């Protein structure tokens, strides 16, 4: 029994379809729970006031925005090496979720930045690299849309994803060099000292878990959709001939 | 009901509103597309079976 | 490989589009900016490095879709792919040819356009050096973008969307080098980074570009 068995589209659909409603349910429960916990039952920060509540949305979405791209990189590599169609389709299915997460991180950040820094937007390294990440997602999705032949599209987007990852990392260091920012350093390092206080931390953990599960549920669902779309095309092509 | 949000109430509520709207949007779009494609596939498969 | 380079250069010179159009575009962008931001000399001095770099980048972008499109249309690209020359080598040569026809003239013309924007006198050397080091990376990254979109109708717009984010690091280090040079600070670090990006792209991107070409020619 190896993980590659799930690369069979039929098996993938059969295994994941019953899972999706459960995952979706649990993730929504976690999100609702975490957000209610964060929104109603945590104190205000003594300097930031109630804006600290944006934390529960901003941090998980920012985390997901990066990790979705990372997941796309891995599935793209799997497609290029092992030629499993499910893998390529999973990358395609993940991209729109990633772009939504990026937009969410940018918008919540802007709303948070307005009262705290006195500006909606600053050309700060972290903000700028998220904007660049947004552009990468856009290009990636546009390339998928533009190419008709599915295998060609999968190949080219995979290559783009790999090259894009290298340049995304480069850009991250380049903007660091270019401007010192307003943004605080990572609040989620494993080093306990640097973390935010526990009161804010536990609800945030629940929210992060909710976001991750929501992403997993959506990716499984959307991948199954992509598989079906491809099957429809194949059947129609066969009937026409 | 809503806790005292102080002077930042507007910001916090917009952030929550926008984020939840975005989440609902992506979930809704995925579910809707999934349903549509499923129906289409069932339709195509039925036509194929009829043709055979 | 040399023969291919000669052929590409000869074609570019004879068609005339390569040199002329890119340079003219560069000139027009640089001329338009003062109309947009106003004629204050101090302001122009401040923003000149960035404008020159952005204009050079756009001018390089303009001619990218010609890299493979012409060869693809007349069928010589599949011939090149089946020739004994490795496709990686073809991609590399295409990148170099693009640089000689656009990047090099841009680099040579940039100091002259610096006068128009009232560039600080100490920055001319750095402008020239950063463009000389950075534009090859622009050409090579662009070759990769062109290889990705070669088979597409209306690929030009899509290619801009794909290539421009990849240009970010080059642009940042290039413009930063000129800015630091203008302020009399040490510009060695950004220049070294720029050279690193250029060498890295020349070492790795031909492989990515040829992979994309193979897929598109399949």
From TrEMBL, chain A:
Pfam families: Cytochrom_C_asm. It is a multi-pass membrane protein. Residues 4-183 form the Cytochrome c assembly protein domain. The chain crosses the membrane at residues 20-41, 61-81, 93-115, 127-147, 159-179, 199-221. It is found in: Cell inner membrane; Membrane. Keywords: Cell inner membrane, Cell membrane, Cytochrome c-type biogenesis, Membrane, Transmembrane, Transmembrane helix, Transport. The keyword Protease does not apply. Required for the export of heme to the periplasm for the biogenesis of c-type cytochromes. Belongs to the CcmC/CycZ/HelC family. This is Heme exporter protein C. It comes from Octadecabacter dasysiphoniae.
TrEMBL record, chain B:
It is found in: Cell inner membrane. InterPro entries: Haem_export_protD_CcmD (IPR007078). Its main location: membrane. The chain crosses the membrane at residues 12-31. Keywords: Cell inner membrane, Cell membrane, Cytochrome c-type biogenesis, Membrane, Transmembrane, Transmembrane helix, Transport. It is a single-pass membrane protein. It holds the Pfam family CcmD. Belongs to the CcmD/CycX/HelD family. Required for the export of heme to the periplasm for the biogenesis of c-type cytochromes. This is Heme exporter protein D. It comes from Octadecabacter dasysiphoniae.
UniProtKB/TrEMBL annotation, chain C:
This is Heme exporter protein B. Keywords: Cell inner membrane, Cell membrane, Cytochrome c-type biogenesis, Membrane, Transmembrane, Transmembrane helix, Transport. The keyword Transmembrane applies. Pfam families: CcmB (PF03379). Required for the export of heme to the periplasm for the biogenesis of c-type cytochromes. It is found in: Cell inner membrane. Belongs to the CcmB/CycW/HelB family. It is a multi-pass membrane protein. InterPro entries: Cyt_c_biogenesis_CcmB, Cyt_c_CcmB_bac. The keyword Transmembrane helix applies. Its main location: membrane. The chain crosses the membrane at residues 12-35, 41-62, 96-117, 123-150, 157-175, 187-213.
């Amino acid at each position: 029994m190896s993980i590659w068995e799930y690369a069979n589209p039929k098996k993938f659909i059969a295994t994941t379809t019953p899972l999706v409603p459960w995952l979706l349910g649990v993730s929504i429960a976690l999100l609702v729970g975490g957000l209610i916990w964060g929104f109603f039952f945590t104190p205000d920060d003594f300097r930031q006031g109630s804006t600290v509540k944006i934390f529960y949305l901003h941090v998980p979405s920012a985390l997901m925005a990066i990790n979705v791209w990372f997941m796309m990189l891995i599935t793209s590599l799997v497609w290029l090496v092992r030629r499993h169609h499910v893998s390529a389709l999973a990358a395609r299915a993940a991209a729109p979720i990633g772009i939504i997460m990026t937009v969410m991180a940018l918008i919540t950040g802007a709303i948070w930045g307005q009262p705290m820094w006195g500006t909606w937007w600053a050309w700060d390294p972290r903000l700028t690299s998220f904007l660049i990440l947004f552009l990468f997602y856009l290009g990636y999705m546009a390339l998928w849309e533009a190419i008709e032949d599915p295998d060609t599209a999968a190949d080219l987007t995979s290559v783009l994803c790999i090259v894009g990852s290298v340049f995304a990392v480069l850009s991250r260091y380049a903007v660091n060099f270019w401007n010192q920012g307003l943004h605080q350093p990572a609040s989620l390092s494993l080093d306990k000292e640097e973390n935010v206080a526990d009161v804010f931390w536990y609800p945030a953990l629940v929210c992060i878990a909710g976001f991750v599960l929501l992403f997993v549920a959506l990716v499984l669902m959307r991948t199954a959709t992509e598989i079906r779309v491809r099957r429809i095309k194949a059947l129609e092509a066969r009937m026409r001939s | 009901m809503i806790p005292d949000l102080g002077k930042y109430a507007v910001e916090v509520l917009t952030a929550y509103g926008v984020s939840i709207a975005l989440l609902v949007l992506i979930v809704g779009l995925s579910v809707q597309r999934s349903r549509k494609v499923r129906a289409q596939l069932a339709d195509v498969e039925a036509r194929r079976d009829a043709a055979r | 490989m040399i023969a291919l380079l000669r052929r590409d250069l000869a074609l570019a010179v004879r068609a005339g589009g390569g040199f002329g159009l890119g340079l003219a575009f560069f000139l027009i962008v640089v001329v338009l900016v003062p109309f947009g931001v106003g004629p204050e000399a101090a302001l122009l001095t401040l923003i000149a490095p960035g404008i020159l770099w952005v204009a050079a980048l756009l001018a390089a972008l303009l001619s990218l879709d010609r890299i493979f499109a012409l060869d693809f249309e007349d069928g010589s690209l599949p011939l090149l792919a089946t020739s004994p020359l490795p496709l990686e080598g073809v991609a590399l040569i295409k990148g170099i040819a693009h640089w000689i026809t656009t990047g090099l003239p841009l680099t040579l013309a940039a100091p002259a356009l610096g006068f128009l924007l009232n560039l600080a006198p100490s920055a001319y050397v750095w402008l020239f050096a950063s463009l000389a080091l950075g534009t090859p990376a622009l050409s090579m990254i662009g070759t990769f973008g062109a290889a990705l979109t070669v088979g597409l109708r209306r690929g030009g717009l899509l290619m801009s969307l794909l290539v421009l984010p990849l240009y970010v690091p080059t642009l940042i280090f290039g413009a930063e080098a000129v800015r630091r040079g203008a302020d009399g600070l040490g510009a060695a670090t950004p220049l070294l980074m720029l050279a690193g990006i250029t060498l890295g792209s020349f070492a790795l991107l031909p492989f990515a570009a040829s992979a994309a070409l193979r897929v598109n020619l399949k």
